[in-house]
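In this notebook, the sequence line spells out the residues, with the fold written below as integer tokens. This is how one looks.
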Amino acid sequence: MRERVLKELLPKYGLEAAVSTSFDLIGDILILRKRPGYELDLNQLRRLGEELLTRFRYVKTIFIDVAGVKGGHRTRELVFVAGEPKTRTVYKEHGLSFHVDVVEAYISPRLSYEHVRVARLVREGEVVVNMFAGVGSFSIFIARLSKPSVVYSIDINPVAYELMVENIRLNNVESIVKPILGDAAEVTRNQLAGLSDRVLMPLPNMSERFYCSALASLKKEGFIHAYEFLHVDKNKSKQEALNNSFSQIKSILQSCGEDIHIEKALQRVVRTVGPRWIQGVFDIFIKKN
């Protein structure tokens, strides 16, 4: 319904080319998306925002994302459009609540299925490492829906870490989720080597440094869940893009200096993120020889 309303309103304000019909609703904050390559008419955008506030009474603030997620701290460049000038809200997902900052800390409602899917894969007593924890969503879902012995939840962003600590308390998982502020590669390699049964990598960006650290943190065998943004070349399918990406990941892991056996347990498209761009997930089983 919300997508239909936005699709109807964009031509009214001459914004159908510059603004996508796709958006995120995070708590009471609505985040529109700018299409790449188009200029925004900010006056018309603000008029659109005011009308959206009257249509969606539960929305208090509207931003538009002009550049996507950037940098090691995974922050967004948002332009304020209408409503209350705030960036913090409470986001609810599958019955759990999270304090979030939509500018200063990474959060994506589009991963809600993955939060539950991965949590239900975790077996009783597992040690889990979440290398890019953000505000703690994956870690907290695992703690609440499964029975791990511990989840080490790492992020380098101080704001995300502060919110993660708050969310761990809010969702009563202090005895299971251990927040760590630091560089994920250094923490996993230097503090958690050989300890984990399962490693989550929500944004590794095909980095040898991160993949090799994830491998080092695994016990004799275990799983890596890697999320990558992939370009789908013209005349190629999404499945081909996934296959090519898995081959790259496999090559990186084989270059880390350990004798390992690699199996692909699952690969799938998580979401479309732009023209010819997707996010894929790879569940990878690894056995060290």
